[in-house]
Design goal:
The protein is α+β, with helices and mostly antiparallel strands. It has nine helices and four strands; from the N terminus they run E-E-H-E-E-H-H-H-H-H-H-H-H. The protein is 63% helix and 8% strand. Strands 2-1-3-4 form a four-stranded antiparallel beta sheet. A hairpin with a 5-residue loop joins strand 3 (34-37) and strand 4.
Length: 260
């Protein structure tokens, strides 16, 4: 609201409410000075207008204070904000006694399975199921792919399960599936090394997958050497399964150090 100061037939201004109060406090206007609002809706002496201005200011300040909520009250009841930008990778891995026991079990089982390479184990029965399923599932593909499909599926299944359990933070289940992957590769290494000798019994007495595959790519004479390489890779996978919790901790520590 703005005001005019009336002096005879003259109207000085307009003045804001603050300017009007300052002029009054500085003694430049008497309390009997006539004041008129800018819109002409109200006219009165300064002594009448100033209390109205003061009341208006007080009401405005009160309304503002009522709308202002203290910071502690504003946050009350509001769920605490959690920074999830880095997910589980920034959390410390808890290497408790059960983790150590689990890793010891995986290590012993891995060494046992490695020592039994070339012999039939429970895992070989499971691998055989997925191996044959691979041939059936991709039976419509070209012959080379069909021959390779059995080996691929028996390796892909434990690999996918390991990935799934890792994503869901099931550490021992991840270790178990990584160990299974290593054993499945041992199974494959025996199969590859047998490509020329062909002494392993085959389901249905069909053609030896790796005799066909290595023959197609001109590596049949290297079947035993390739089998030995796969043996070493399988042993490394067993070591990976055993060391998995420490690898997870190392990765978490690196990420934590990066974001500090």
């Amino acid at each position: 609201m703005r005001y005019f100061v009336l002096q005879g037939n003259d109207a000085l201004g307009p003045f804001s409410e603050d300017e009007l109060r300052d002029l009054s406090e500085q003694g430049h206007m008497q309390q009997t000075t006539s004041i008129r609002t800018e819109d002409g809706a109200r006219t009165g002496m300064l002594s009448e207008i100033l209390p109205l201005i003061a009341a208006k200011v007080t009401a405005s300040e009160k309304a503002t204070s009522d709308k202002t909520v203290p910071a502690n009250e504003a946050d009350e009841g509001r769920p605490e904000r959690v920074d999830e930008s880095y997910g589980d990778d920034t959390e410390e891995v808890d290497l408790n006694k059960w983790t150590l026991i689990g890793s010891a079990v995986i290590a012993v089982a891995g060494l046992f399975l490695f020592s039994q390479r070339g012999k039939w184990t429970f895992f070989d029965g499971v691998n055989l199921i997925f191996h044959e399923a691979g041939h059936l599932i991709l039976g419509f593909m070209p012959e080379f792919i069909v021959a390779l499909a059995g080996t691929l599926l028996q390796l892909v299944i434990p690999g996918l399960l390991a990935f799934y359990f890792h994503r869901h933070e099931k550490r021992f289940a991840t270790q178990f599936c990584v160990m299974w992957l290593g054993q499945s590769l041992l199974n494959v290494s025996n199969y590859v090394a047998d490509a020329r000798a062909r002494v392993l019994p085959l389901v249905g007495g069909g053609e030896h997958d790796w005799t066909y595959l290595l023959g197609k790519i001109g590596l049949l004479q290297h079947d035993v050497s390739i089998g030995k390489v796969l043996n070493v890779v399988a042993l490394l996978i067993f070591a990976l399964a055993t060391a998995w919790p420490w690898i997870c901790q190392w990765r978490a520590n690196r990420r934590n150090a990066h974001w500090i």
